Amino acid sequence: MSGAKYSGLIDRYWERLPVKNRKHIVTLHEGNTPLILAKNLVKEIFGTKKQSSEDSDNNIRLYLKYDGLNPTCSFKDRGMTMAVTKAVEEGSKAVICASTGNTSASAAAYAAKAGLSAYVIIPEGKIAMGKLSQAVMHGAKVIEIKGNFDEALALVRDISENYPITMVNSLNEHRIVGQKTAAFEVVDVLGDAPDYHALPVGNAGNITSYWMGYTEYHAEGVFEKLPKMLGFQAEGAAPIVKGEIVKNPETIATAIRIGNPASWKRAELARDESGGLIDTVTDDEILEAYRMIALKEGIFCEPASAASVAGVIKKKEIFKPGDTIVCTLTGHGLKDPDTAIGVAPETHSVSPDIEQVLEAMGL
Ligand code: F0G
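Output (structure tokens, whole complex):
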């Protein structure tokens, strides 16, 4: 499939998505993101022992589905092209969402493209700067609350029930349906499903979407075995793992700082039907994976995205030689430069003098 041949994922998967008229499509050419073989990470995580010679069928293959390369730099664009297209089809004039940042950036951009108003409700002080800058640049009305995502989502549900404003959180089923295309893309590239698919879990829409995509394709006989779904929540925001609502979720991965996920039950279903698991990763494990992906693969993702790789590292004993693992990197690292600068070694500040520069270079 060539990127130029299709304009966005509704066009690409037209027969599988419930859009009535191509004229209504609102697209920023999302989807078709790369699936990158991460050989350096495999070496780093599994060492060379489990690996036989290069490229042998016995090697573990780890792929990164880099969804940070969508138009607004997160996977949310997959669901948003659908949700905003359907909002236009239904004659809506405005959209609203609660967000930890990426949904608001995406909603704002697609609403701008469609000529709709956008309202976003976000937890004050807990949104990475890149995301907030996107929402304001695309003209969304940004309302910061002195509360968390879960409280923001409750407000949004209330408002969308009482005003003619379309909610574009993943409670809107069109979001889930759009996001399932990521699973189609993985299968289209690999020619099969992976053995395992790992991803971060916040509001639990994405794990729900992937499972929907894989099971739908599977039912059509496109491939034989379904993947096991591996979901990872940050330890301080792990309601599904703990089996109870977390009132004050906390994690450095602000994108998944959620204590009462909207798609909780569906995430459990994805886990159980696939024979997978949902587990926690600590902030330290997230940050270690975050740096490792950048240092070893040259890929910059945001902290929440690295929870998928952190989870694979934590669970490395479950994988066997020959297994294929896909980790979704849900958002781009530039979304959250503050965290990157915070964990990186200090830069050197010297005079424009050759001696000093060489010394700083360690030469
Ligand atoms: N990764 C990133 C970068 C995210 O922004 C999110 C969710 C997730 C993972 C988790 O996905 O919610 O489908 O389980 N961000 C939402 C937002 C909540 O408002 O942008 P999920």
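Residues 35-72+175-333 form a domain with the Rossmann fold fold (CATH 3.40.50.1100).
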